[in-house]
Amino acid sequence: MIKKVLKTLKILLFIFVTLIAIGYVFEHISRFYFDSKRPVNSEFVEVDGRKIHYKKVGNGNCTVVFESGLGGDYLHWQELQKKLSKNYTTIAYDKAGIMWSDACENVSLRRYADDLKQLLEKTDCPKPYILVGHSFGGITSRLFIKENAKDLAGIVFVDVSHPKQLEKSSSPLKNSVQPPPRLLLSFLNEIGAIRILYASTPFTTAVPQEHWFNKNVKTYFYRIFDGMMTELENDKKLMKEASQIDDFGSIPLTIITAKYPNGVEGARDKSLEKEYLEIHLCLQKDLLNLSTNSRQVFANKSGHYVTLQESELIFNEIKRLAPK
After folding, report:
1. How far is Cα 49 from Cα 245, in angstroms, rounded to an integer?
2. How far apart are CA 225 and CA 27, in angstroms?
3. Could you say which of 28, 79, 105, 158 is the most buried, measured as most Cβ atoms within 10 Å of its Cβ?
4. 76 plus 100 within the same structural domain
5. Domain that holds residue 282
6. Which pLDDT tens digit goes with each residue over 54-111?
7. CB neighbours of 150 closer than 8 A, spacing ≥ 6?
8. What is the pLDDT of residues 118-167, one digit of tens each?
9. Which residues pair with 129 in a beta bridge?
């Protein structure tokens, strides 16, 4: 009996190891193929010895600057860029460690500000700037805003993070939004499990599974993963730094706040969902205090991805803020 059990276990172990090996080979062949689609060299600038990838479109007399959230890459903004480029210069970029940009060990608002400032200067983006930040982009852009206030025609914060959101959340709420351990996710990423997962399940239900956004995450998660996890592991540090920058002066500021009509995506505990929404709406209102010239716009049909669900709200605010 024991021999039969051991034999069965050996067979199962062999199958398991074989599947891992197949998954690993499949994943890395996929990576080799998708890496071959690397953007042309003219879409990179060097900052402090690192390559930063960007996409600049349009030729207007001011520049719309897109700042992505956690793990967000330049493609997140492609539809808005295409629409806005008819009248404005637009630039989206990959932050350090995301997509095509080189990683950097220094994770601080100082580095984010320096990276963005040098990027705009080296790509000859005309001033003034209109900065559009989504999600965690409302944290990473704060020092840049403070130091370049004279060059900003306006700011559009799209359902952005608030520096005190973790501080105000209960322990159960904080635990509910924590991702699995990095080591486990890294292993699953290396053996192709995450690619297979996103082939059958959308990254976000804000848009259909066949939408380019979900396809992009499935294709390039391996190029997003390390940078995203690095930001997540430093979120408390970055939020603490951001909390020291609480005055944008009189820069025109629009806070676009999602109303989450269908609830919070992925939330299973209704009491925690209620807590999150109460904190979120309260802190979104608090963001208005960043500027003496601020206003709030509600995205009544959107969850967190207002950028995908009601991008016309962002377009209209940029048009309103742009120099005439």
Report:
1. 28
2. 14
3. 158
4. yes
5. 41-178+213-321
6. 999 999 999 999 999 999 999 999 999 999 999 999 999 999 999 999 999 999 999 9
7. none
8. 999 999 999 999 999 999 999 999 999 999 999 999 999 999 999 999 88
9. 63, 152
Amino acid code (one letter) for 82: K
- Closest by CA to 142, choosing from 161, 168, 170, 122, is 161
Number of domains in the chain: 2
Task: Please tell me whether residues 126 and 154 are part of one structural domain.
Answer: yes
pTM recorded for the entire structure: 0.91
pLDDT tens, position by position, 210-263:
999 999 999 999 999 999 999 999 999 999 999 999 999 999 999 999 999 988
Q: Are strands 63-67 and 50-57 parallel, antiparallel or unpaired?
A: unpaired
- For residues 4 and 147, membership in a common domain is answered with no
Same domain as 21, residue 57: no
Q: What gap in Å lies between CA 68 and CA 243, rounded to an integer?
A: 19
The 10s digit of each residue's pLDDT in 139-148 is: 999 999 999 9
142 and 229 belong to one structural domain: yes
Q: Is residue 237 part of a domain?
A: yes
How far is Cα 261 from Cα 299, in angstroms, rounded to an integer?
9
Q: Are 107 and 238 in contact (CB under 8 A)?
A: yes
What CATH number is attached to the domain comprising 311? 3.40.50.1820
In 137-269, where does DSSP find H-type helix? Answer: 137-140, 142-147, 165-168, 171-176, 182-190, 193-200, 212-233, 235-243
Place of tokens 């192709």: 192
Phi-psi region of 71 (alpha: psi -120 to 50; beta: other; left: phi over 0): left
Whether residue 129 sits in one domain with residue 19 = no
